[in-house]
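Render Aldo/keto reductase in 3D.
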Amino acid sequence: MQQRELGRSGLYVAPLVLGGNVFGWTADQTASFRVLDAFVAGGGNAIDTANMYSAWVPGHQGGESETVIGKWLRQRGRRDDVRIFTKVGMKMGDGRQGLGKAYIRTAVEESLQRLQTDYIDLYQSHQDDEERAVTEPLEAYAELIKEGKVRAIGASNFSAGRLRAALEASTTQGLPRYETLQPEYNLYQRTGLEKDLLPLCQEYGLGVIPYFGLASGFLTGKYRTEADLSQSVRGGSIGPKYLNDRGRTILAALDAVVARHAGSTPAQVALAWIMARPGLAAPIASATSPEQVTELLKALPLPLSAADMHQLNQASA
């Protein structure tokens, strides 16, 4: 399978990253193991999670996803076969948040313990901590890289200005640089990345690994009416955000492209569109069953024509 390098990190991944936000939440351990097995068997090699997944669920503390992945890594003996991405910085409760140097040192040890590994391939600042200098987390990451606990670092949910400041500081102060950016990006949500962040990433050669590649499931095409929103726990948030005239226009364009590619699905086309966009390395998508994984992986060989791309670009502009 084709591999793409993430920035200048030396990390090569298939053009689809498996999102781990559902592990320990809407997918229990057994279901999660089946999803992970299917993803690796299908040629995938990168799994994205975060220390705070899934702290938003009543009764959860955060770390549930990392714990499931760690048990899978240990039971399957697959650590050398996959790239593990995790994150630090978002609110977990009890004051556990931010990008302070001391907190990062504590958080990484907790993540390593839950993941049952001695290194993290890509450790990401989950969101900017604007109360701190951009150099503070970079100094912490420098120590972790030197100690072999982290191979490369990335940023997520940063403004263009703060990301540029961090990249410039890395150059001038000899600190490790963010090799990736993880932003929200899909056919519905384009402006936030394309206006300022994508040109910056291309200027510095960062790998872009967008999350919400399927717009929380909306771009699978299963949410087309108000009645469809009761199909999952995400339905309540999908309706107000996506089920409008623009959303329906995008779904119609997806349907038209699907009609030209026998056997394809809206989800596959939506992900293939991201993979074909200049400057993007690999979208992140989650699944709760092996069947969903199989469908997602079929996006990898799906060749979208210039006419397909034009139609999708116009509908989602």
